[in-house]
TrEMBL record:
Gene3D superfamilies per the UniProt record, alphabetical: 3.10.20.30
Protein name: Sulfur carrier protein ThiS
UniProt-listed Pfam families: ThiS
Highest taxon in the source lineage: Bacteria
NCBIfam families: thiS
Lineage of producing organism: Bacteria, Bacillati, Bacillota, Bacilli, Bacillales
InterPro entries: Beta-grasp_dom_sf, Mopterin_synth/thiamin_S_b, Thi_S, ThiS/MoaD-like
Amino acid sequence: MKCIINGDEFNFEQDLPVTEVLSSLELDQERIIVEFNGSLIKKENFNETIVRESDQLELLEFVGGG
């Protein structure tokens, strides 16, 4: 399954929930905002939102600093 994440093509063996996509990219889902096919999704919906062929995700990670 191919999908686009932040403009880059990624290949996964099967459709996956957003939580597993984030995990495979070693991203902390507590610090990520996800836009899924043009719509923001809530963190509580990450596990039920399934990424399929040709889906597009934009990921924004919050980082602290100072």
